[in-house]
């Protein structure tokens, strides 16, 4: 097969959690550009409906559902509706996450710790498990992409802000990915993680506004810049398509070189 054809997703159905805006929106559109129909879910309703319209404008089927990814009954209803409306699920991209806590670890309220771990780690299990059950039952395999962060390897040096809980959750995402990959390879379900470095989004804007933090992050990055929000699209389509047919359990770091130093 010609190499560019390996990236085509025609006739595939994808779910993108947290797909309403920023990186999730970019990646929902990337999958649609590659040929997939895309169902997105998010808490952000207005942005979600706008992204749905953008996907439809590309000539694909799209659907937006307002879902809190920490609420299993809402995930059940969403997954069931996608299967009813689209007939199947081939691809799941788990983006939904919340930003760092911002306060020192010894001051993080217990409830905040639970909320970040539930949103940024456990929800990937809740969603992944349900979609994998469908894929196993259908017997046609599938691909799951979990969004981790370079912070799965290194604690973000964004003092005087703090983000240990976020980093711990993202580390869990990397290992959850390996666990899913090891258990579901027998069903032809490939599970990989994407671990971005600093990308210009509202999530990084708070710390990037502090010159001391921005300068430190740029000095620690060989490429001396943050990534653009559209610079991970190729990686998502690679991991979602036949182009990555022998990859499972991989944590693909794309960070301008931050983690090499
Ligand atoms: N921006 C970066 O530099 C960067 C770096 C590394 C990893 N990441 C990861 O990439 C992903 C996307 O990042 P982003 O910067 O676009 O973040 P973002 O906050 O803009 O997007 C996350 C989306 O998840 C949604 N969401 C949050 N909690 C939810 C919940 N309980 N239920 C449903 N939806 C919920 C938000 O509404 C938002 O649309 C996240 O997993 C993030 O941790 C981002």
Could you describe the 3D structure shown?
This protein has 261 residues and is of the alpha/beta class. The chain has helices spanning 22-33, 45-57, 72-86, 110-138, 164-184, 202-208, 211-219, 233-240; strands at residues 13-17, 37-42, 62-66, 91-94, 142-147, 189-196, 251-254. It has a single domain (3-254), classed as Rossmann fold (3-Layer(aba) Sandwich), CATH 3.40.50. A seven-stranded parallel sheet has the order 3-2-1-4-5-6-7, with helices on both faces. The longest helix is centred in the middle third of the chain and has 29 residues, at 110-138. It has eight helices and seven strands; from the N terminus they run βαβαβαβαβαβαααβ. Helix 5 links the parallel strand 5 (142-147) and strand 6. It binds nicotinamide-adenine-dinucleotide (NAD). Nicotinamide-adenine-dinucleotide (NAD) binds next to helix 1 and helix 6.
- Strand fraction equals 5-15%
Distance between the termini: 38 Å
Q: Determine the number of helices (DSSP H or I, runs of at least 4 residues).
A: 8
Superfamily (CATH H level) name: NAD(P)-binding Rossmann-like Domain
Task: Report mean pLDDT, rounded to a whole number.
Answer: 97
**Count of beta strands:** 7
- CATH C-level name: Alpha Beta
CATH architect. name: 3-Layer(aba) Sandwich
């Amino acid at each position: 097969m010609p190499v560019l054809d390996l990236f085509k997703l025609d006739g595939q159905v994808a779910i993108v959690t947290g797909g309403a805006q920023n990186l999730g929106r970019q990646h929902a559109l990337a999958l649609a550009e590659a040929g997939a129909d895309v169902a997105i879910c998010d808490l952000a309703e207005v942005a979600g409906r706008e992204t749905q319209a953008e996907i439809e404008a590309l000539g694909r089927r799209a659907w937006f559902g307002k879902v809190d990814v920490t609420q299993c009954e809402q995930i059940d209803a969403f997954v069931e509706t996608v299967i009813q409306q689209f007939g199947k699920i081939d691809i799941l991209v788990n983006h939904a996450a919340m930003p760092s806590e911002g306060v020192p670890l010894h001051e993080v309220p217990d409830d905040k710790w639970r909320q970040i771990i539930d949103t940024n780690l456990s929800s990937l299990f809740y969603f992944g498990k349900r979609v994998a059950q469908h894929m196993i039952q259908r017997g046609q395999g599938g691909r799951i992409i979990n969004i981790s962060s370079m912070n799965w390897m290194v604690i973000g040096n964004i003092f005087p802000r703090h983000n240990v809980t976020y980093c711990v959750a993202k580390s869990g995402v990397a290992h959850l990915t390996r666990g899913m990959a090891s258990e579901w390879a027998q069903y032809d379900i490939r599970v990989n993680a994407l671990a971005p470095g600093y990308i210009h989004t509202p999530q990084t804007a708070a710390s990037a506004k502090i010159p001391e933090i921005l300068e430190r992050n740029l000095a620690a990055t060989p490429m001396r810049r943050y990534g653009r929000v559209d610079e991970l699209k190729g990686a998502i389509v690679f991991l979602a398509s036949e182009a990555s047919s022998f990859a499972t359990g991989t944590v693909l770091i794309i960070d301008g070189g931050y983690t090499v130093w």
